[in-house]
Design brief:
mainly alpha, 22 helices
Length: 425
């Protein structure tokens, strides 16, 4: 009983300090993990056993891969090319950037995506003399929606895929349709919110048409290699189940190959990896492992099952909405890290949990749109906007993000009911 109280206190303290942002989240997780070991709740070897090294490997591999690819200028090329395809029309540009952001976020880290697309947004909006905030907001929403579609699109999916042994193809099959539906609904919503304010003169539109996307290509050879490798990486992830390879092996192998053929500075590539994020993941797994060790996860699982009884459809929807709401106000990574052993415990108790994994995945990723602190991409891009003279406040974000989140989760509710409504009969 004492160990349970201590483990819960450490977990709550870690989450509380992360939310307060008084201390870097990597330091919070590290301190929490060390306390569990020093107090004796976990043995050092036991603590290491709770770390999901497959998730860590995927993150490191994809970060290194992107660090090389981005030096080609391919992302800037895509941004300008899409703006020209839209004929400089501000509304069409908004849609094009939403689609590009969603697609890139399905294969890259969301923060990386917005960091690559954001600067080009400022450049194009400056030429059109438009406020970039509507464009940035739609890109943030699209990033969080698009990242839901694949195994590697968002950290929660990487964690879920690794824990439940769910393949890349299965993520596309189960999460992909609701992402497309939500994206279409979001476009219509943004048409209503921003459509009337997006009008410019033909002269300004012509300035966009005069931009040369080819000037953005900094290394032609690397550009060609990047296009080929991006295709091969996607194909490898799709086939990883058939190949019998873990996703971490594919990510790290592709990163190694890209470093070799890209001929980029290795030290710079390694430096571009978000090591604080990697440290945070590793030690967070240990903090959650402490809850699992003392039986808290089992107790919560028993409580949820006893409350809903055999009404597993209700349990699925509860998990969806709780995941979305909690992920809107908390970092979705520690939240999902807590839910994973919870669902695995239910599975050990004889419950078929297949639909529950999708409820967590969709809820946690969609919930990131709810508030300015709901996802890392939100914090990063709004921070850049503020530094550029376009501040986005918590309330400003909430007015747009909350309706988008609620709309997407309502659609997800209907989607899951259609997909799994009769699953447990």
């Amino acid at each position: 009983m004492v160990s349970q109280v201590i483990a819960v206190a450490i977990f709550v303290a870690v989450i509380g300090v992360i939310v307060s942002e008084k201390l870097h989240r990597a330091a919070c997780a590290l301190i929490g993990a060390m306390l569990l070991i020093l107090i004796g709740i976990l043995e050092p070897k036991e603590a290491l056993g709770f770390i999901d090294f497959n998730t860590i490997g995927v993150l490191i591999g994809m970060m290194m891969f992107v660090a090389v690819v981005k030096n080609s200028g391919i992302f800037e090329y895509l941004a300008i090319k899409s703006a020209k395809i839209a004929k400089g029309n501000p509304w069409r540009i908004m849609i094009a950037f939403m689609i590009i952001t969603a697609v890139l976020s399905a294969f890259l880290d969301n923060v990386t995506t917005v960091l690559l697309i954001g600067p080009m947004t400022f450049s194009i909006c400056q030429k059109l003399e438009l406020n970039p905030v509507p464009y940035l907001m739609t890109q943030i929403m699209s990033s969080n929606l698009g990242g839901t579609a694949t195994l590697i699109g968002d950290p929660p999916n990487i964690m879920i895929g690794s824990a439940a042994d769910i393949s890349f193809a299965q993520f596309v099959i189960y999460d992909g349709p609701i992402v497309v539906i939500s994206m279409v609904a979001a476009i219509f919503m943004f048409r209503f919110i921003y459509g009337k304010g997006l009008s410019v003169s033909p002269e300004k539109m012509e300035l966009i048409m005069q931009m040369d996307e080819k000037e953005q290509i900094r290394d032609q050879a690397l550009f060609v290699k990047s296009v080929i490798m991006i295709f091969l990486v996607a194909l490898a992830f799709i086939l990883h189940d058939a190949l019998g390879l873990k996703t971490s092996i594919i990510a790290l192998s592709c990163a190694a190959l890209m470093i070799m053929i890209g001929r980029q500075d290795v030290e710079e590539t390694v430096h571009d990896v978000e090591w604080p994020t990697i440290v945070f993941f590793a030690f967070l797994f240990i903090v959650v492992g402490g809850l699992e060790k003392v039986g808290i996860i089992q107790n919560i699982a028993d409580l949820m099952v006893s409350t809903t009884g055999t009404h597993y459809v209700i349990l699925m929807l509860v998990i969806l909405w709780v995941s979305a709401i909690c992920s809107a106000v908390l970092d979705n990574i520690p939240f999902v890290a807590t839910l994973i052993p919870l669902i695995m415990t239910m599975e050990a108790d004889g419950i078929d949990v297949w639909p529950l994994w999708w409820a967590v995945s969709i809820g946690a990723c969609f919930g990131g749109n709810g508030t300015i602190i709901g996802a890392s991409a939100n914090v990063v891009l709004t921070g850049i906007a503020g530094r550029r003279g376009y501040p986005i406040t918590f309330i400003d974000f909430l007015k747009i993000g909350a309706p988008v989140m609620l709309m997407s989760v309502v659609l997800a509710t209907v989607y899951l009911l259609v997909l799994f409504g009769g699953y447990w009969k």
